[in-house]
Amino acid sequence: MKSEIYFTTGDFAKLCEVTKQTLFHYDNIGLLRPAHKDKKGYRYYSYTQFDTMYVIESLKEMEMPLREIKEFIIVTTPDTMIKLFKEKSRQISDKINNLASIQNTIEKKILITEEAKKTDFSKIVLTEAQEEYFYLSSPLLNISEDENKAAISDFYKICMRELHEKYSIGVMMNIEDIANGDFENFEHLFAKTDYTDALPLVKKDKTMRITGYHTGEYENVAVTFDAIFDFIEENHLIPVDYLYAEPILDRISVNDSDKYVMKITIPVTRG
Fold this sequence. Notes:
Layout lengths: L5 E3 H8 L3 H9 L7 E2 L5 E4 L3 H12 L4 H10 L2 H40 L7 E5 L2 E5 L8 H17 L7 E6 H5 L8 E6 L8 E3 L2 E9 L5 H14 L2 E3 L2 E8 L11 E10 L1
Antiparallel strand pairs: 1-3, 2-3, 4-9, 5-7, 5-8, 6-7, 6-11, 9-12, 10-12, 11-12
């Protein structure tokens, strides 16, 4: 024992950032035995065991059961170590990507909500819109219910897996349908995104647009649509393209449906 540097159970536990009870348990199940026990039964660990402890805790962090970790350590060879570590590295990469997607979604929701807090929802405004890129669902009109469900499902899968987008999703509606009082026909779902050549995107060129806001349940949206179209007529504007509706305050950010807010935009030209 004099030729080696040993740590008490308490000191080794601090070094490994675990509890003494964890080391006792690992000893009892034969996962990591102390390098030395004296006549009184006191456990001592070598600093050279830190690497083994690090591997155990890392694999445990990857939700690998202690029984499997023990089996791996007992029979490990260079080949089995490489195989296991490659698999765990792949799992870690997947987890990192998933966490990055969650973080991206959270940050976008924060930006949307912070912008909403600064917005006067009672105003209808004419602004200059910069070019944008949209990812669209397959058409949702004049097809069967099963086809609609498949189109929506495919759209959301792309949004979550490729665009990492779960909140900034809206609907596109035909201007003529709105003018005729038909507010239930959604031609496409859309998600705004940065340009990528990995997906077929629709580019919206720089243009003027009308922006208004509907507060409350969608069933009462007619009043808001009427106000927006009155504004368009009074300012001698002509609607083009589609009406775009997207939630900015929803069940995630408010707990009262009467406080839901939908942003409504319509590209326009001068009459």
